[in-house]
Structure formats: structure tokens, C-alpha cells
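Lab notebook, bench 4. We co-purified these components, and the gel suggests they stay together. Before we commit to crystallization screens, I want a quick structural picture of the whole thing.
Request: model the full complex, all chains together.
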Amino acid sequence: MTNQVARGKSTMDYEKLVQSEDFKGLVKRKQNFSRPYVVFFFAAYFLLPLLTGYTKILEKPAIGAMTWTWIYAFSMFVMVWIFTSIYMNKAKQFDIEVDKIIEKNVLK
Amino acid sequence: MSWISYVIFFAVIALTLYITYWAAQQTTTASDFYTAGGSLTGWQNGMAIAGDYLSAASFLGIAGAISLNGFDGFYYSIGWLTAYLVVLFLIAEPLRNLGKFTMADMIGARFGAKKVRGAAALNTITIVMFYMLAQLVGAGALIKLLFGIEYWIAVLIVGTMMLIYVLFGGMTATSWVQIVKAILLMLGTIIISFLVLMKFNFNFISMFETMKTATPHGEAFLHSGVVYTDTIGLISVLIALVLGTAGLPHILMRFFTVKDAKTARSSVIYSVWIIGIFYVLTIFLGFGAAKFVGADAIIAENAAGNMAAPMLAGVLGGDALESFVAAVAFATILAVVAGLVLSGASAIAHDIYGQIFKNGNVTEKQQVNAARWASIAIGVFSILLALGSEKLNVAFLVSLAFCVAASANVPTILLTIYWKRFNTTGAVASMLTGLIVALVLVAISPSVMNPVEGATLITGNPIFPYANPAIVSVPAGFLAAVIGTLVSSKRHEKDEVSYAEVRFKAETGYKELDL
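Here is the predicted assembly.
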């Protein structure tokens, strides 16, 4: 047995597969779902050093001696947990779509 | 050291050796050796990812950094956790769908040229060496502190242990050592955090009030800016932290130890919870050490603050807790270096020997043998480097590994999946440019050049102002990818797989029968 990655002997027409309405729809729905989250978490992440570096607004106390800097930091943790949960739930829907595409276009 | 310290310490080591013995009996094929036969479940792999990720830098480093620098130390926790969103949303599933054993496999699934695989393997080995050097130097210091033995003996002990795990147990042993270590690490951290919170009468808010006056920094301890006085420098560090994870070969390799992309995804979820909770608890470790050990005592033991967590355990729980925490820190380092040796060995044995020199025509037995020899080579080489690196700063080495990963690997990984026009020239240009720019800028940065004689490797004014060059080297990696792709004479080389095929496989996980 060899471990070479199979290439060049494909009998599948991938060009046709990626042009199929099912697949294009899947990719589009995946991107439309992911994009806002990716933009949001990067923005939230890099806004923190901008706010702490160029302003003092996060240095005000929020709860007792805990400043807004810490509240912001903890919110990032909560964001990560929420986004991963949302992703998990959504990905299950995409799994079903993928199975259908494989069944319809590949295993026919 | 009392007798109880020895008992606890050797109990932890005996446990990990038993795991290796058990795993050795199940490791026969190359797939067993590299990826535990893809047999781990979601939670097991999630724990192992956490075990792999929470290295000496996380446990010893962040606790020390928070205790000495307050909020600025916590940036590491934020960055290293948010990094998992990058991994989950952009990389985990396509990577699992396209690859087999290594990161280079995934890039090689689109670009078959040997130079692409060679560049990816070179990056893997470079990152692994820096990362491993950091862990070995840290482990040497820890053992030296605990048992009072010479640094070089300590490094030899750690080096021998890591080779035993990898050579005999492969990925199965390494994974289970990581799982056990993750459990012990969480247990130790939760106990310390509980004791710290108890000292503050379980009042989280009053803890912050106390910290205002508990350190030499005063109120600034609770604000950003104790160390990161320059915002651009801070952003540069944060870029390396958030993107670097997605390019770390030993973390990416963990996605091949499960059977499919669904399991890879669920393992990310488990690891995000474990890692996230751990990073929240670093606040208690850091604040507790600052308040109950004190900055002076921490710095006296280790200038970078690396011994803050074990010292805090000693103050709160006596000898028994201190040695438990030290044993956990030791297991932490062993688990991480074992994972690193494996990913470095896979780059040498699978990518360079198997795919480049032998065109993939190697038997299972040759594969596993080559991987074992490569492990020994990587292990011995890193031990030799570590013996001469006692004075190097551990955190600096780890941040360098993250920066190289973010600059040299991440652009190529992302563009391989998502950019249709990307080609062989672009991939090679990006990987090499990212690597070289990162290394050169670090070599002329304040981490290496310092006007004070003896403080760093070179005496003199730094040419590049930021300790972490990610803000320049990451864009350089992306830019080189675009320029390399657009200026190359051949639009696509003959051994490239069509983007349609890559895209379809990445999205669906579909695999043709590998005959």
C-alpha cells in the first residue's frame, strides 16, 4: 500500500459539481452565515487595544473597582463561547445539506 | 522538598509512563503513530487539544505575567482564546477534509509540487524547534528549582522522558498524556483559584479593590499599559496571538486524530470551553500571586515571573500543593513537547522523506521507522539547543513561534482554501517570505538587541522597534502570496489540483477511494 495522495486520475467532474445549484447555494449560505461573525470578532478583538491605547474610556470603574477594561475582556470570553455554540448548531444544518449533495450528485 | 513532594511528583510521572506502555501495544501503523489511527472521540480530542495548547507559556507564563503586569498579562489569555474562533470558523473543517497527517498534506492536496511541501515542512520544523526550545528551557528551570539539580541534568531528564512517550507510544500515548495532563492542570488551577477566592471571602469585586494597592503599580495594575506603552506594539502582539494558533503544526495535527470533520468541529467546542475556563482562572493565579507571594519574591525566583503559580500554591496549600502544581507543570511541559516532537517528526518522515524523496512509495513499516528516527533526531537536536539556551526568555521563544506560524503558515492555509487564483509560486513565496521576514525582524528587534550589555544576545540599539514583528510579517506573508501568484509566468502548474476539486472536498469532506 502506498500513501501517495491520489491525483490526476479522478473520474469525477468537479467543475460540474461546484457549478451545481445545490453546491453554490451551500457555499453561499455558509459564507453568508460566517461572514458577519468573523468580521464581528476580529473587529471586537482589535477594538480593545485601540480603546485602551488611545482613549481612557475603559479605565472608568464599572462594578466596584473593576474597570470597563475587564468587562470588555470578559465579554470577549462570553463572545467566544456564544459564537462557538451558534456555529455548532448551524453546522449541523449544513451537514444535512452536504449529505444530500453527496447523495444526489455523487452516489447516484 | 519533603517526602510528599517526591511521592506526588513520581506518581504523576509513573501514571504517564503507564499510559505510554499501554499505548505502545496499540501502535503499529503509520496512521496509529501520527494520528492515533484517527480514533479519538470529540471530547477526548478536545481535552487533548487543551492539553497540547495549555503549555508552560499558558500556565507558568500567563500567571507570572498577570502577577507582575496586571491586565497586560491578561492580553495573552484573550488572544489565545479568541484564536479558536479563527480556527473554528475558517480552518478546522476544510483542513480535516483535505489533509491526512500533516498541515503540508492539506496544502499538498491542492499544490502537488515538492517545493510547496518542502516549504511547509521547513516552516513546521522551524516553529516546532522554537516552541520546543521554550518548553525545554522552562522545564529545566522548573526541575532545577524543585530538586535543586543542575540545569543540564534537568534538560536531559525532560528530553529523555519526551522521547520515551513519542518513540514507544506515538500519538496514542501523546494524546492520552495530554488528556490526563489537561485534567490535572484544571484540577490544580481550580484548587488554587478556590483558595485565592476564599482569601478574598469569595468576593470577586473586593478582590479588584484590594489589587489597587497590592502591587507596586498601584491602580495602573488594573489598566492596560503597564508593559504595552506603545499601542502599535500591542496590536502586533495581538495579531500574532490571534492568528498564530491557526498555523501551529502541533495543534493543526490534532484535527487528524479524529475520524471526520464533524468530530474535529466538536473537539474544538470542548477545547474552547476548557481553555476558556482555564484562562478566566489565570486571573486568580495572577492576582493571588501578586497579593500573597508578592512581586519582589516572584522576581527574585525568576525575573520573567515563571514560578509565580507554583510559589502561590506553596503559600496557600503548603508543600503538598506546591509539589502537586509543580508536577502538573512538569507533566504539562512533557505533554506539549511530546506533541511537538511528533509534529516535527511527521514533517521530516512523512513530508520530506515519504512524499518528497520517496514520492509516497513507502511501506507502513518504513514510515513508522522513519518517524521514530526523525523523532530521535528532533529530540536530540532540541536537547542540545536547550543546553545552551538557559538564559533565553521562555515567553520570547513562544511568541516567536506564534509569530512565525501566523506569518509563514496562515496566509497559505487560508488562501489554499479560499482563493481560486492562488498558485504554486504564490504558496512558496508566501511561506518563505513570512518565515524570513519574521525571523529577520525578530533578530533586529529589542528581544535580541539591547543597548545594555548582556541583557540580550546582541548589544546595541534595536533596528526594528517592536518585540513582536507580526504587524509587518503577517501582511508580508499575504502580500507575497498575492504578488507571487500574479507575477508567475505559469498561471497554474500541471501538478496542481483544480480549485473546483479542492473547494468541493473542503466543503463536503468527500473523498474518492484512495486506491
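The longest helix of chain A spans residues 68-106. Worth comparing against the SEC data before the next meeting. Residues 19-106 of chain A form one domain.
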